[in-house]
Design brief:
heterodimer, A: mainly alpha, MetI-like fold, B: mainly alpha, 77% helix, flat
Chain lengths: 295, 293
């Protein structure tokens, strides 16, 4: 009787949230999966089932393939740049916890992560600007010819990687700092007594102990790298209003197929590929973590 | 006696040397970190500075952090050309409503999922957890058609549709309830004849204040910085959020960096100020995202 009353409360209390959740999360996710197997241009009423034809077409679509390659380069580039830097910076900040400035360090490193994407990207647009930007002025000062940073397909990918890393770093440092705080102090004291230097303690004690955190930060950074959109939109758009012509990324290609070419089913299958990438990355993370737990 | 004294001084002097060396290293680290921190915020500092520069000074090399001839012309021109204040208002309204919705849904669902051990609830929790890893970008196209069906495109409600719940928020509150609210407390209240709703409202919610605060800040900034969803849902000039408004404004033909900087600075300064004020809450919230496993 009592149990039943509690059950009734629990169900009634969770029902509104569950209803919203089903409506704005589960249904659209299921719909994405369903649409990816159908052909649907927005205008027509019927959506014929076409099996995996969308996916077959995707892998011959030059635009999609270049978007996939660009996005992967950006995602991995950001991880390679961010994770080691974050680890070192976090170690140094942790080492200087008692310092009067440690709050300043944390805040300064973290601010790029919280400010809105577009205004922050605007700052970098100025830095990379071919005519007005300080980067080119600096290069010329050293006798290196100025580059058209945002108009060259290779250089603009590098610019996006730099912008994304600048923003991702704060989060990674924060997570590493939590990790450093949770490391057992006794271990470091033992290493110290054995005469290990600071660098050695970092290399042989902290780094192996923080492996799960490194894994987590890498996967999270990779996943957010695969979702890159705003950064490419702002940095690599030209003044003609044809955004992202220089650097195609997955999300942009997807939105363009859906809202410019009206091929919703096709766009949905791109979304499914994005989902597959994210799932694989997450599974790899869990797999590696479990393996570590067993050994 | 003297022997001991000698030994003592000897030890302190060698210890002193070690300490001096350690201090020197610490000092070097401080300098490095200081330089690095400055580098991290320099782009933003220059952005704000550029907002006050005349077109002539924008060309000057080396760029100055403090404009020699500060002008408000950029701001005046942006405000005349764009509904910037309207965009900022849209963003604030959207982020606030999203924050309220996420805090409410997460508090109730997190509490129920933590303290009511029924099998049906476990299944619900697994579902929520399973969808948590799906990025928003994956399902936003079907969601767009749902918004269209409801007739809420180009409105605050359309924006809100994508940001009503947060899987991670539910998860965060559930963890918090499990760790910080003992079953005995709830049982005692029940024995005293308290109703379930009263318990949630008067006992659980006050105890969750810290976690809900962190979640609120997280939710606000998540909506404030969202881009892809507002980009597809808001397509009229009046309904843009500040992010979308700025991103589209910068593709215009006649736009120069001075005015772009002014518009960006108008957005950055309040959000950085807000962040510095709420830093503790924010850091706590973000740090807890890393503690998922």
């Amino acid at each position: 009787m009592l149990q039943q009353k509690r059950w009734r409360f629990a169900i009634l209390a969770i029902l509104p949230t569950l209803a919203i959740f089903a409506w704005v999360r589960m249904y659209p996710i299921a719909e994405t999966l369903r649409l990816s197997l159908h052909q649907w241009d927005i205008l027509s009423k019927n959506k014929p089932f076409i099996g995996l034809a969308n996916f077959r077409e995707l892998f011959q679509d030059q635009l999609f393939l270049s978007a996939l390659i660009n996005t992967s380069i950006i995602a991995f580039g950001v991880v390679i740049l961010t994770v080691p830097t974050a680890m070192v910076i976090a170690a140094l900040i942790h080492h200087r916890t008692q310092s009067r400035f440690s709050g300043f360090y944390e805040t300064a490193v973290f601010i790029p992560h919280v400010v809105s994407l577009v205004p922050a990207a605007m700052a970098w647009k100025w830095i990379f600007d071919a005519r007005l930007g300080p980067l080119n002025a600096l290069l010329e000062f050293f006798g290196i010819p100025a580059q058209a940073w945002l108009f060259d397909p290779v250089l603009s990918v590098i610019c996006i990687i730099i912008l994304c890393s600048w923003q991702a770093l704060g989060y990674a440092v924060l997570i590493y700092l939590v990790g450093f705080k949770n490391l057992p102090v006794s271990l470091f004291e033992a290493a110290k007594l054995d005469g290990a230097s600071g660098v050695q303690r970092f290399r042989y004690v902290s780094m192996p102990m923080l492996k799960p955190i490194t894994l987590y930060v890498s996967v999270v950074t990779l996943i957010s790298g695969f979702n890159v959109y705003a950064q490419a939109f702002v940095l690599a758009s030209d003044s003609q209003g044809a955004p992202g012509r220089q650097v195609r990324v997955l999300v942009l290609d997807m939105l363009e197929n859906s809202f410019r070419n009206y091929r919703v089913g096709y766009a949905a299958s791109e979304a499914v590929i994005l989902l597959a990438i994210v799932l694989v990355l997450t599974l790899i993370q869990f797999g590696l973590l479990r393996e570590k737990g067993r050994s | 006696m003297t022997d001991i004294a000698v030994k003592a001084t000897d030890r302190t002097s060698s210890g002193g040397r070690m300490k001096a060396r350690g201090k020197l290293i610490d000092f070097a680290i401080d300098i490095f970190l200081f330089g690095f921190s400055i580098m991290m915020i320099l782009p933003l500092a220059f952005l704000i500075s550029n907002a006050f520069k005349t077109p002539q000074e924008m060309l000057a090399w080396p760029p100055r952090l403090i404009p020699s001839d500060p002008t408000l012309e950029n701001f005046r021109s942006v405000l005349a050309d764009t509904p910037l204040l309207r965009w900022i208002f849209n963003s604030i309204a959207f982020a606030s409503l999203s924050m309220v919705a996420i805090v409410m849904t997460s508090a109730i669902a997190g509490y129920v999922l933590a303290k009511f051990p029924f099998r049906s609830l476990n299944i619900i929790f697994m579902l929520i957890l399973a969808t948590a890893i799906v990025p928003f970008e994956v399902y936003m196209i079907p969601l767009y058609f749902q918004a269209q069906m409801l007739g809420v495109l180009n409105s605050l409600w359309g924006l809100l549709l994508g940001y009503l719940v947060m899987s991670f928020g539910i998860f965060l509150i559930r963890q918090n309830v499990m760790h910080s609210i003992p079953d005995e407390l709830l049982e005692a209240a029940r024995i005293d004849g308290a109703g379930e709703f009263w318990i949630f409202w008067k006992i659980v919610l006050p105890l969750l204040r810290g976690a809900l605060g962190a979640l609120a800040v997280l939710a606000f900034f998540q909506a404030w910085t969202s881009f892809a969803w507002p980009m597809i849902v808001a397509t009229t000039r009046e309904s843009y959020t500040i992010e979308v408004g700025l991103a589209l404004f910068q593709t215009g033909f006649t736009v120069d960096l001075g005015r772009l900087s002014a518009a960006s600075a108008a957005v950055l300064v309040p959000s950085i100020t807000l962040f510095v004020i709420l830093r503790r809450n924010f850091v706590q919230g973000v740090a807890s995202t890393g503690m998922k496993e």
